[in-house]
Design brief:
By secondary structure, the chain is α/β, with parallel strands linked by helices. It has 5 helices and 5 strands; from the N terminus they run αββααβαββα. It has a 5-stranded mixed β-sheet with strand order 2-1-3-4-5. The mean pLDDT is about 95. Keywords: Hydrolase, Metal-binding, tRNA processing, Zinc. It is an enzyme of class 3 (hydrolase).
Length: about 140
């Protein structure tokens, strides 16, 4: 029941909320022991803050929930591959697993030859079509 797709659907719901707010539609959830401990979506426009990416919001929320800065034994589900800034924060958080919906060939950390914490497991391609489509739809509407 608690599969990567199950939790990615929750992250996708966050992306849909961002889309409705005219934010870049990226969403994520942080899971610990099969329980969602943080939910977030992009808030860069709402907060007028370039650092208010979904991942940054979720890392802060999860750390507050856990009462510490490390996200060991946690998994972050994110609809789009994290950027360089977010990958740095994820690395510092020592998160155990990151599950990515769609890759971001231009701005994602993987093509920049960056890595997360050495113990962090990375999984890609969960609900890839849906996660990619919502971002493409968003930017198409801006043209």
């Amino acid at each position: 029941m608690f599969t990567d797709e199950y939790f990615m659907k929750m992250a996708f719901q966050e992306a849909e909320i961002a889309f409705e707010k005219d934010e870049v539609p990226i969403g994520c959830v942080v899971v610990s022991n099969n329980r969602v401990i943080a939910r977030a979506h992009n808030l860069t426009e709402t907060l007028n803050d370039v650092t208010a990416h979904a991942e940054m919001q979720a890392i802060t929320s999860a750390a507050n929930y856990l009462g510490g800065k490390y996200l060991i034994n946690c998994t972050l589900y994110v609809t789009l591959e994290p950027c360089v800034m977010c990958s740095g924060a994820l690395s510092w958080s020592q998160i155990s697993k990151v599950v990515i919906g769609a890759r971001d060939e231009q701005r994602g950390f993987i093509n920049k030859n960056l890595s997360l914490h050495p113990k962090t497991e990375i999984v890609t391609g969960i609900m890839e079509n849906e996660c990619s489509s919502i971002v493409k739809e968003f930017f198409k509407s801006k043209r």
